[in-house]
Hints:
Layout: E1 7-16, E2 24-34, E3 39-43, H1 50-57, E4 65-70, E5 73-74, H2 80-90, E6 91-94, H3 106-114, H4 125-135, H5 151-164, E7 169-173, H6 181-192, E8 197-201, H7 205-208, E9 213-218, E10 221-224
Parallel strand pairs: 3-8, 3-9, 6-7, 7-8
Antiparallel strand pairs: 1-2, 1-4, 4-5, 9-10
Helix pairs in contact: 3-4, 3-5, 4-5
The structure holds adenosine-5'-triphosphate.
The site of adenosine-5'-triphosphate has 12 residues, from strand 2 and helix 1.
Amino acid sequence: MNTRPVVRLTGVSKSFSMPGAPPIAVLNGVDFTLQPGEKASLTGPSGSGKSTLLALIAGLLEPDSGTVEVGGESLASRSEYQRAEVRARTTGIALQSDNLIPFLSARENVELALGFGSDVTRRRAPTVARELLERFGVGHRADHVPRHLSGGEAQRVALAVAIANRPAVLLADEVVAQLDAETAARVIDEVLTVDIAVLYITHDVALADRVTTRYELVDHRVRPR
Length: 225
Ligand SMILES: Nc1ncnc2c1ncn2[C@@H]1O[C@H](COP(=O)(O)OP(=O)(O)OP(=O)(O)O)[C@@H](O)[C@H]1O
């Protein structure tokens, strides 16, 4: 059995510097692993560094020290372009908003995501895209462009986009914040049926408790909750 973590952070520290102000230390010596297929939530106070952690795993930020590995590949000493390549192969990202290409319909957004490295042929892409949208209860909005979707519908389309390429890990940051409690729970439960690792960042402890492993970010580190 392959037990190599899909995400491994070792001794990761990150601070931000603003001109004329002392640096803000956000993460300090974070050790964190996510196993293949593991469903984990990450809670923590506002400003504690949850989105920063997600950006480091996605290779959108570089740590000041420590190492980040995703899908068994180290992101250290890689160019931005190389990190983007690793991200495209291994990682799905769904954020609270601004996930979608504005001039493409919901279905076309998903189709585009299917095209990157998946074995779905061009011919089957529209059907597969529609199935993914239906899975999240937005099949009836397949032909809408993002500005004609509600906030909650756009978030569900974004989840379909993020898992379309069957990434090894889904990074989801407050992805159901605009949904009513019942729909949010249903969408999270749907995400949990996908056979990939999930790191779900939220302030909503009730939703965070639906997953199997729970972490919190406090005092610049990740610890089990
Ligand atoms: N690019 C940046 N430049 C300067 N400071 C930043 C930058 N990005 C984040 N920060 C700071 O780092 C800290 C952590 O931010 P982050 O967004 O990771 O927190 P969070 O836990 O996701 O917060 P929230 O729950 O409110 O979304 C905050 O104090 C924020 O102001």
